[in-house]
Amino acid sequence: MNARNAPLPDVPHVVTVGLPHLTSGFDRAARLDLTTHLRVHGPLAPVPGERLAALAEDVSLLGRGGAGFPFARKLRAVAKTALRRGVDPVVVVNASEGEPACRKDSVLVNRAPHLVLDGALLAAEALGARTLVVAVTRDSTEASVRDAFAERGLTDRRIRNRGIRARIVRTPERMVSGEASAVIRAVNGGPALPPGRRERAAESGVAGAPTLLSNAETYAQLAVAARLGPRRYARTGVPDEPGTVLLTVSGAVARPLVLEVPSGVPLGYVLQLAGAPPLPQGVLTGGYHGSWIDACAAHDAAVSRASLASFGGALGAGALLPIGAETCPLGETLRVANWLAAESAGQCGPCRLGLPAAAGGLFDVLEGGGQAALEALREVTQAAKGRGACKHPDGSVRFLLSALNTFTDDLAAHVLGGGCGRPTSAVLPLPAPVRAGSHHRGGAPSGERLEVDWTLCQGHGLCADVVPELIRMGHDGYPAFADASVPLHLHDRARRAVRRCPALALRLEEASAAQAPLVPPKSLEQGRG
C-alpha cells in the first residue's frame, strides 16, 4: 500500500483506459514538446467566438476544477462584458493544485503543456484577448510552462504570437490558493487568498478586465473537442457527460495513479487498477472538499458527476481516495479536518473559528465525549455552512459531515462505546513539512510545531485567543490543539502566542524533532485504540 501520509509526487504514474484523448503521446515521451505535440495531435485551426461556445455546449464541457460550471456560459459572459465595456478580456489558466490529493493538472502541465495552451489560446483568439496568464503551484509545472512559452515564442516582453502576451504567476501550495478569486488576486499582485467578497471574474478580474478563468484540464478538453468535433468527441463516455475524465487515485492503493478514463466507467474498476482493497471500507470522492461513500456505493457507482451524486459522492476535482478496513475512518477524517482548519484564509469567522471548532468537536467525539459531543459537533458544522467568504468552509464541512453519515457503525462505536478499536493509519496524503526559509509562501508548513509542557500549563487560555486556528480551549479548561503543525501564514501569531503564555508552557519546535500533536491527558492515537 501507499506509504503512510506520503505526499504525492508531482507527476504520478499515468494509466489510460480506452482510447487516449488528453494522454495521447504519453507512450512516446515523458514530456511532449511542441514538435512532438503537433505530430501526436496535429494542427489546430482557430474557431470563431460563438462557434467555440457552441462547441463547448455541444460536448457539455464543464469546468474540471471542482465547481463544474458550464464553460460555454463563462465564455459568452466574458465576451458580452468585453463588448459592452469596450475592453480587452484576459484568459487565465488555473493550474494551481494546492490540494494534497490532486495531481491531474500537474500531470497535464508537466507532460502535455501544449494541449493546455492550445485550448487557452483558442479561447483567447475567439475572445480577442491579448493577455494570457498561467497560474502554477510547483517548480516542475512552472518550468514546463516556461519551456512551452519559449517553444511557442510567447513572452510577456514582446508580442510575437497572435498578439498574445503571456506570463506565469506562482501561487503557494495551499487549499484556498486554487480558488478562482484567490488566483485572480495573486495575478493582480496581492496574496493568493480569496478577497472576502463575491465578484464575478467575467465582470471584473485581472486588472479589472473581464476574465475567462478555467483550470488546465478544461482547456485541454476544449482543444481535444476542437480537433475531434462534437460527434467524434461524444463517441467516448456517456451521452450526458461525453468524453474522458482525469482522476487522481491515492490513499490505500498500491501506488498513486493519474488515470484517463471514459466517463461512465465503473468506479470499482478504477479502484482495482490502482490496487485498492477489494472491499474498501469507504472512498473519499472529489478530494478534501468532497464526500465519503461506503463500500456498497463504491461498487455500484460509475465515474460521472450524475452517478457519483446519486450515491452521495462528488466528482469534484477528480480525486478518489479509498481506505481499507484496518484504519479508523473517523480518525482519518480528523487528520484531514485538522489540516483543513489550518489551511483557513483566516478572513471570516467560519474559517478562522468554525473549522478549528469543528475539528476539535470531532476530536471530542473520538475521545469519548458521547452524545453531547456529537450534538455539539453537528451544531458547530451547521453554523459554519453557507457563511464563509469563500467556499473553503462549505467544502470542509461537507467532507466532515459526509464521514459522520457514511461511517455510522464507527461513529456509534465511538459515541456509545470505547471506540472502534482500530488505529489511524494515516493513509490519506497530506503535505510534507517545509523548512522555514523555503521559497514557498502563504499556507505552506513552516517546519515548526507548537508544543506544550503540561507540567507548567495553567489553562490561562491566552494562546487560544491569539491563534484560534491552531489552539482551542477544551472542556477541561486547558488548551487542545486543532493542529500543532504551524503553517507559514500563522507563524507570526504562533510566536506571539508563545510570548504571551504567562506560565512559559508553550514553545515552538522543529517538526522533525516534535512528536504527534499533544492533547491532555492522552495522545490522539491512544484514544483510538
Automatic annotation (TrEMBL):
The keyword Repressor is annotated on this UniProt entry: no
Gene Ontology biological process terms from the UniProt entry: cellular respiration
InterPro entries named in the record: ComplexI_51kDa_subunit, Nuo51_FMN-bd, Nuo51_FMN-bd_sf, Nuop51_4Fe4S-bd, Nuop51_4Fe4S-bd_sf, Soluble_ligand-bd
Keyword tRNA-binding: no
Occurrences of domain NADH-ubiquinone oxidoreductase 51kDa subunit iron-sulphur binding (ranges): 330-374
Needed co-factor(s): [4Fe-4S] cluster; FMN
Alphabetically ordered keywords of this record: 4Fe-4S, Flavoprotein, FMN, Iron, Iron-sulfur, Metal-binding
GO MF, any single term: 4 iron, 4 sulfur cluster binding
PANTHER family, A to Z: NADH DEHYDROGENASE [UBIQUINONE] FLAVOPROTEIN 1, MITOCHONDRIAL (PTHR11780:SF10), NADH-UBIQUINONE OXIDOREDUCTASE FLAVOPROTEIN 1 NDUFV1 (PTHR11780)
Recorded family membership: Belongs to the complex I 51 kDa subunit family.
Protein name: Oxidoreductase
